[in-house]
Inverse folding.
């Protein structure tokens, strides 16, 4: 995602970044499905795969319809890039426990998506994308809360 060339159109940059970001979540979730032991966590991973594949398809459709759209929200693409800093946490160490590692990394990953979506809501102008960003925040905040509960109970 850091190598992505920004267009200067906040919505287009948000959608392109979120497609890449979602694919990363899908890849992590697929690893959990194949290697995890906890059925609740694997179930969430399956739901993440299903939900984010659907969202990617919606975003790709929007991009196709709007690829030539001019930005009306100014160039807030740097704010989008800066929002990804929340995902940088040098204190997270891999343990070798697929469930524990997935939950730790996915919390951080979701926090990055929530930050990016918040920038879109604050600076974007396209109603469809703003609604998509609101849904991302709603879903991923709920998943983060569930994963934090698991960290405090079942996967210490």
């Amino acid at each position: 995602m850091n190598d992505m060339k920004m267009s200067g159109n906040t919505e287009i940059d948000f959608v392109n970044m979120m497609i890449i970001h979602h694919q990363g979540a899908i890849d992590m979730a697929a690893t959990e499905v194949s290697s995890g032991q906890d059925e609740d966590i694997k179930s969430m991973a399956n739901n993440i795969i299903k939900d984010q594949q659907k969202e990617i398809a919606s975003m790709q459709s929007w991009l196709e319809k709007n690829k030539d759209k001019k930005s009306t929200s100014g160039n807030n693409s740097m704010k989008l890039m800066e929002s990804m800093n929340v995902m940088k946490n040098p204190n997270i160490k891999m343990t070798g426990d697929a469930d524990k590692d997935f939950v730790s990394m996915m919390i951080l990953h979701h926090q990055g998506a929530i930050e990016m979506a918040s920038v879109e809501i604050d600076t974007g102008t396209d109603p469809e994308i703003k609604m998509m960003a609101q849904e991302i925040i709603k879903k991923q905040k709920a998943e983060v809360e569930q994963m934090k509960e698991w960290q405090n109970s079942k996967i210490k």
Q: What stands out?
A: The CA atoms of residues 24 and 51 lie 13 Å apart. The mean pLDDT is 86. The radius of gyration is 16 Å.
